[in-house]
């Protein structure tokens, strides 16, 4: 099987392309299914949470309305008068009961309003209650009830003329508006059946249910009727305490897995808890899985047919070309192949016929372009040095002329003139060692006038090399670097030594200073820039990691690049430095390339 595939490009391409099509399609299908199932679940949870919040808003409105009604009744003038009178007035009693009845009748969720006077006056109520479970609750929660201005009771049962009713009551004391003396107790009872209707009419999932818990985590409404008045922990002991005001839980330990959503009513600390069976998601996910699988199978079949057809069409000219070249003798001149098409295959054959000539021409052109580009970059960097130096020097001459008529002015102007004349030099790149030394001495003389008593410079040259030729403008940037970065940053007077000697058919130059030296990090940075320049100019005998390093020493790197371009790899700068001692920069020039033509 392996050899069968190896002998045919079409077979290998078919297999590779099919893999390239099948794997992304399968991956896309799996990812799409996972995303769809996640989105389905998230949307169901979001919809459930929105429904809980809508129910929360309704219940919060009911609670707020009941509390506002109680405040209205407590401050009502007729009620205050009735509770303050020692003997109940029949007319006043009837009028107040009518008011209470109108309030309870207009609000379906209010089952009963009861006002119990502290004196012997008759109790006012809207519903006849033969037996109430409120009194035991008041005794059970006496400490909470008496210390609060209002208190909501747990769920309890009352016996009315219409039969038993389950209610939740707001109980609060009625005080005199003037003396704040307790006159009685107001009880507003909510009909649990009406609260249940809010939950069942909310549009919750038909296979799920919603529970309403009071501040004591007892079930007020929802779920199995036998759960009422039981604590949530008694019904679902493994769910634990709901710490947050709202959230989502996945429960696996019920008869069937459920997603549990809960949201707290902040006004009373009641909590709505909704249960959604996860089988709802699974049914939707099964549908998504079926659609995804069918789509992927159809796409795979279509892709396989198209791949095989197009491969046959594309590789047919290549098959003919292979048969044509199969029996050719490598020792003989390869004949040209007739080009019959203008597509990629035709271009391939045409390029093959012209390959050798084209590569040679392009190689020469690239080398020439790179050399010209590098030389232009170097000339641009070199041109940046002279204007900057010229402006500083002319400024110094100007101030000396104004402040002190001295012979130094003439000498400084002369040195500057020689310096500029040599720098321009009609564009010539080479000069004698003596001219390079004179140029550096002119620069040093000018700087010595600008910065008196800051440094001394000495030149030591081998007499046998002064007439040899060298690339110009090499020493001056190195002296400038020593002066600016080494000597001027030192408090004491510094020294610069320029050495030149013949050694093993080479001219070696050294610029040494007694400045502040370089820290190890700065030295490594400059050496890294030198190595990067070696890499960019194609020097092979250095190790360089392909990392971009910001150039911070333009003068040094400029000199280093010019040396590499004109003299090769062995002529680059060598930088050594010791913090607090000084810096030494050296380079070597092959003697055979520096001889002066006679």
Automatic annotation (TrEMBL):
Keywords: Cell membrane, Kinase, Membrane, Phosphoprotein, Transferase, Transmembrane, Transmembrane helix. It is a multi-pass membrane protein. It comes from the Bacteria. Gene3D superfamilies: 6.10.340.10, Histidine kinase-like ATPase, C-terminal domain, PAS domain. One of its GO terms (molecular function) is kinase activity. PANTHER family: SENSOR HISTIDINE KINASE YPDA. Residues 312-364 form the HAMP domain. SMART domains: HATPase_c. It is found in: Cell membrane. The chain crosses the membrane at residues 287-311. Coiled coil: none annotated. This is Histidine kinase.
